[in-house]
Amino acid sequence: MTDTIQSAIDYMQETRDQMMEDYKALLRFPSISADPAYADDVCACADWIVSQLSALGFENCEAIATDGLPVVYGEWLKAGADKPTVLVYAHYDVQPVDPLPLWHSEPFEAVIRDGKIFARGASDNKAGVWGNLKTFEALLRANGTLPVNIKIMFEGEEESGSPSIEAFVEANKERLRADLLLNCDGDLAPDEPQLTYAGRGIVSAEVRVKGPQADIHSGLYGGLVQNPLHVAGAIIGSFHDERGRVRLPGYYDSLKEADAAEKGRIAAGFQAEALLEGAGATAFWGETIAPAAERATVYPTLDVNGMWGGYQGPGNKTIIPAEAGFKVTMRLAPDQDPRVVSQLLKKHVEGFATETVTVDCSIGEEAWYFELETEGPWLEAVQSAIEETVGRRAQLVRTGGSIPILGVFNRAIGLPITAFAYGHGEGIHSPNEYLEIDTFFTSLAAAARLYHNLGQVTG
Length: 459
Prior knowledge:
Aminopeptidase; Alpha-Beta Plaits; six-stranded mixed sheet; 14 helices; 21% strand
């Protein structure tokens, strides 16, 4: 089997240039799930991936319809009943590209420069899709078979909160039955490899404050008609105290402190300097609440992500706007039920309505926290593959982000979950997103070893 792995790795290197050129076809799809205007592009991307799976010899390949955007499914079950079945997860949808003027090249016309490939989705998370397809191609080319049974589940709604995924999983439990879920949404830097083992839940919402029937003259109506922007500002100002602690009544009622072992693991994996540099900041906020490492990963948050209302053009326009609004996301701690927290937010926000303004809080995504394996043979298969490839094992880290599908699998199916990522990149969710090509190919080599290792897990 060692010869097979090396043959697969050699094949990846021999086809390196062509592989990256072919990757551009996947990156060309503007598969932006959050914007309904791109729904057809998301579906076209799903169909393209289905064709790639079919060409590799996978069976029962299809873009399965959901209440929203499709899930790509395919299976290769020829390894035998004595081999594990691995459900491989990644997502092919991407974030919006705004602000477009900050991009140095067209976001959906991938460009290779300085050893990096630049495009929206190049790292997050089309690398997870493409990396798996190319790993399977190399292993099949080397040995004519795969070391494990594979089921593919590539999601098309991750970047919009996975609104349809829980219903999809519940309806397809038998089809998704496996021994392990392998999450391939992440980042792997060979110099400092890390594996995410847990993350926070999430609630998102949009708030609209409506007042007069149209924008009105501030000289005639100022002081007479309540200004929706002032109400929106008051709501936002009510969210935190001066230390940064969230002031929603009941918000912390279910919060439990992490135990000593978990606090140690969180502290060990926290990269304060990198985060400060990434933010262009000199210090963190809210130091009196808890250590920064815990606030960034396991404590709940509430953030306003965007706000609008009134005149935004050059000069001045003396009006009281008819409407104002803002968007909110809340990252949730392990013991917080997103359905409860969303209602706490809604009650608090809508309590600012008066006789002259209406306030509506529309809840979007509601997702639980997730937890992956922190020990055992599945994780060991990943760690051994990484160690053999880059010379060190990955550090286990908790992320402050959210991956809704993993929380669904934790609760709905109870599959053991471990993670593996394809390459390292930057600019995720920002302009000029890129994937380092060398680290991508390092991950491909590790992936060939990983699937071999997973095939050795028994019981």
